[in-house]
Structure formats: structure tokens, C-alpha cells
Amino acid sequence: MTRRESDPTGLHRVLDTPAVLPQAAQRLDTTAELWPDEVRIRVERLNLDAASFRQLERTHSTNGVVDGDAVRAAVLDIVATRGKMQNPETGSGGMLVGTVEEVGPESPLGLAVGDRVATLVSLTLTPLVVEDGLAAWDGRGEQVPCDGYAVLFGRSIAAVLPDDLDPALSLSVMDVCGAPALTSRVVGEYVATGRAPTVAVVGGGGKSGSLSLVAARDAGAARTIGVVPHQAEADLLVPTGLADEVTIADARDPIALRDAVEKAGGPADVTVVCVDVPGCEGGAVLATAEGGTVIFFSMATSFSAAALGAEGLAADVRMLVGNGYVPGHAAYALELVRGHDGVRRLFEGRLHG
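^ that's the sequence the OP posted. Answer follows.
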């Protein structure tokens, strides 16, 4: 069979008919042989995105006890069936760390054999083969030790891992690096008009949430509010000093979220949604001032619910979808971790907890 001509988007790896882009595809070609503009990575660790991992946990739990073997089997089945890690329930995947083992002669990515890298494109569009059955993973954490290979396209993105940070920490940070970068950009737009905004981060104690809090402050926010779901999360976030106010609310309860943000100094000019559960759209809209901005950084978000909910509330808010990419986002997020002990402690606590 004649080999398809390479396309920088990875279209040549799509096995669906009619062809779609790799992220939307049901199956990808995982052939190890490279097209001229591709790069093959020897994978050492996957980082499953939070929404996907939580869904797998919920599905494979009995009386609150997670069956790690069942979670591992589910991930293996997804990868074997689809040629990529894309949870069919959430549509999301994650990212990976590995070492470059071959570079096509026409690759524009600037990588060299032996580079240790983190991919900054989703596993939902990355051809992936697992060769060790995930034997070193117990199915109980988002970071997955793995031996296998993955393929990057001409328009993929990868970053060489820094020498001064634990690779697991770097991977955890790079997995969510789009959130602080876009938060910083939006806050900067307000500041440029002479108006320092109040910023509320829903899920402020999590990875993307804690980075978004520090990014908002560094960009000139007048006030930062961290919203967390329970006291245990508040006890983790308060000592870091990342938020001017920490408030507790179930983000799925729109009235509770609105009231909590208002009592903490809102409504917010900018609301950043970083939680990994569905049903938070209405509360985020209600917590945001007229003319304000809501940034959705959760793969659990229903964008139809957000749009129709805002319409039904007659809410004049701008809604942005965080697509995970802003130029320079990885380097920026790593600098935030290096420069702020509070956010670094949160990340390291989650990694080792």
C-alpha cells in the first residue's frame, strides 16, 4: 500500500474514514517507522489529565475503594484500541515525559536524539504504544510509569526538561502550564487599561489553580480569591499565601459559589475555573461581575451549558476556553514554581502525598 504523504498536523496517521484531525480520530496509526518530519519518543512517564483520571477512579471504585488494577486495565485498553490515550468519556488525555530516540530529517521541532522532553501537546492526538503493560503503575495516581514509544508531528510541541527540577515536578507543572499563562495575559489586559482586577480561581488549591493564583498576582491583580471545596484544601492553600482570601464552596452549587466569592471580596472581574468536575458553569457566571471574564480551564466543562446558562441569566460576561497553549507557557510556569515557594510546596505535596 502506498504510504500517505506526511502532513504537519499528523493527518497521515489518522485511520478514520473520512479523515479528521488526530484529536478527533477514533484510531491512529502507531507505526514506529517515522515520516520525515516526525520525532519518536521513548516514553518513561505519562501524566493523565485530572478530569480523565477522576472519571476512571469513579468508574472503577466500590464503596469508595479504587480498584487500581481495573484502572490500569482501562488505560491499557484505551491505548490499544485507539492508538492514543483519549478517555472516551471525558475526551481528554494528558501528556508525557520521555527521551528522543529518533528525529526525522525534516522535523522542525529542534530536538536531538537523547533530549529528555515533556510533550506539550495532548495525548489525545499523540500516537502511543505501551510495551510494558504499565507493570510499574498501581492505577492510583495520575503519573504513570511507562515503557513504550510515542510520535510527535511537525506541528507538535515539546520542551526539554530543565536540569534543576525533579522530572516528575516538571511534568506536573507542564501539564497545566496553559492556565497561568492565559490568566496572566487576561489580567494584564485589565491592568493595561488602568484597572487592576479582582480574580477568583475556582479550584485554587489544585495544580492549575495555584499557578493561576500566583500568575494573577504577578500580573497585577488587585485581589485574588481562591475557592476550594472543603476545609482540608483550605488548610493546604492558606499557608502558602497565594490568595488574599480563601473561601470554601461547592462549585457545582451556583448560589453557594456566587455567595462565597462575594463574601471574599467579589464579584470577580476575572473568574478562572480549574476544577475537574462537571456542573460548575452557572456558578462561575454568577460569581463574575457584569462585563467580566470567565476562563474555563477544565475538560469537565460543558460549553453549551456555559453559553446557554449565561444567556439565561442575562449575564454580560466574556467566556474564554483555555486551549492549553500560549507562546512561552512552559518556561513561564516553571519560573513561577521556581520563584514562589508556596506553589512549589503545593505541587511537591501532591506528588509525594
